[in-house]
Amino acid sequence: MSDSAAATITARAGIAQDTAFGAVTPPLYLTSTYELPAFKQPGQYDYSRSNNPTRDTLAEALCQLEQGARAIVTGSGMSACLLALQLLGPDDTLVIPHDCYGGSYRLFTNLAARKQAFKLVIINFQQSDWAEKIKAATPAMIWLETPSNPLLQITDVKAVCQLAKELSAKVVVDNTFLSPVLQQPLLLGADIVMHSTTKYINGHSDIVGGVLIAKDPVIGDELKWWANCLGVTGPAFDSYMTLRGLRTLVPRLQLQQQNTSELVSFLQRQPLVSKLYYPGLADHPGHAIAKAQQTGFGAMCSFDLAGPADALPVFFASLQLFTLAQSLGGIESLICHPGTMTHASMDAAAQQTAGIGPTLIRLSVGIEAPADLIADLQAGFNAVADWLNTSPPNNNTERVASGNTDKGSVKGSADQQFRLNPALSAFW
Ligand SMILES: Cc1ncc(COP(=O)(O)O)c(C=O)c1O
Fold first, then answer.
1. What is the whole-number distance in angstroms between the Cα of residue 202 and the centre of ligand 1?
2. CA-based angle 404:409:414, to the nearest 5?
3. What is the largest CA-CA distance in the chain?
4. Structural domains of the chain, ranges and CATH numbers in brackets
């Protein structure tokens, strides 16, 4: 979507629509129930689990942004996932990527194994045989998350949707990491888009919410029916907050992306970064596809710290700006250790298969001054370098990236720094 179209839709969402008093900002309808005009005569609204004007205003704006037919606002991203899975029965197969968000992975694997809600096939979409594996699975639904959390792997949505069409499978795309401003999966052929609105769409880390947007009104109506039946629709207050946050989505993302590209350039030069994950880098394996299917590279990036896992507390403790926290997409910069935080619900083997290493760090870049963010990370790297230089030798035995046990080399010459940074040769 063009920035100007998205900017207008988001800024004007719900504005100047109040017919009662002419309020410019739409009112918040906290009522749980609605008066019937007369006996046996239903009004437009009856009960807020089923429908609520504030929630409907948000749903309408998100539907327009993703260019769908129906949007169903839910109480969390996970309840949006759960809602989409209602389209499956015990004989249906769901294909998921091996490296999706840990909470989604937990939901899929537990519903399949403990409730036999559907059959599950886990695929690595980064391997060349993904299409053969999907054909063999004959799925009813394919779940995509692109860019993926936390490694920012890119999946070719168009290619998967083409194959899915041949197999009569539905494709659901978790678009949380980009928002509709940077990627519109329905236009790439997907059937349903899912968001954790907790993240960029709200953007201020003060609510938890989710949404499903369906391309086909029939599927949308079925999802709406299930949302009411299960009671997973989102609260009115959170919808109001999300609508308020949504209005600045475009300028927020512009600033966050600018800051991210400055941070990525800084991280590329860091000797204590052994591998950097950002689809905006020309050598990222998914760069070309990201460029084709996204209108921006987003404001998330991850990196492996070149050092032992024991260095992580040193790094995190020395940061003043980056807050160590689970979520992402807010205007404040957050940092997280996926292995013990967002992806802790994946066991060690699943984390290893997904490529989540022990020193992987994920950044959600906010709108602070980029020079301050860079200085903050630099302080963290300096603290780790000092710690490596002064700590007892056994602290260095697990040094993962350097292969260099000379502690003094961490702050050494450019040549030594290059040796400490295998990302420069091995990954890119
Ligand atoms: C990609 C992705 N999908 C889904 C979710 C779940 O959303 P929520 O926390 O709003 O339930 C998250 C949460 O971090 C996420 O990162």
1. 13
2. 105
3. 84
4. 3-247 (3.40.640.10), 250-427 (3.90.1150.10)
pLDDT band at residue 397, thresholds of 50, 70 and 90? very low
**Alpha helical stretches, state H, 279-425:** 287-293, 312-317, 348-354, 370-390, 414-419
Which of 74, 78, 346 for mutating ligand 1's site (highest number of atoms within 8 Å of CB)?
78
Q: Residue 77 Cα, ligand 1 centroid: separation in angstroms? A: 5
Per-residue pLDDT tens for 322-337?
Answer: 999 999 999 999 999 9
Alpha-carbon span 339 to 427, nearest angstrom: 21
Catalytic residues: 49, 101, 174, 199
Question: Best substitution site from 198, 202, 334, 341 to test ligand 1's pocket, by max atoms within 8 Å of Cβ?
Answer: 198
Task: State percent of the chain over pLDDT 70.
Answer: 91
Q: Please give the pLDDT value at position 2.
A: 72
* pLDDT for position 4: 66
pTM for the whole structure: 0.91
Q: Give me ligand 1 centre to Cα 424, in Å.
A: 32
The tens digit of pLDDT for each residue in 180-222 reads 999 999 999 999 999 999 999 999 999 999 999 999 999 999 9
Q: What is the full DSSP assignment across 276-313?
A: EE-TTSTTSTTHHHHHHH-SS--SEEEEEESS-GGGHH
Kindly list the protein residues whose Cβ atom lies closer than 6 A to any atom of ligand 1.
76-78, 101, 103-104, 145, 149, 174, 176, 196, 198, 208, 210
DSSP 125: T
Is residue 38 classed as helix, strand or coil in its secondary structure? Answer: strand
Asked if residue 88 lies in contact with residue 117, where contact means CB atoms within 8 angstroms, the answer is yes
Measured by CA distance, the residue closest to atom 6 of ligand 1 is 77
Judging by DSSP bridges, how do beta strands 300-305 and 273-277 pair with one another? antiparallel
The residue count for the chain: 428
Q: 428 pLDDT exceeds 70?
A: no
Encoded tokens for 337: 């250790």
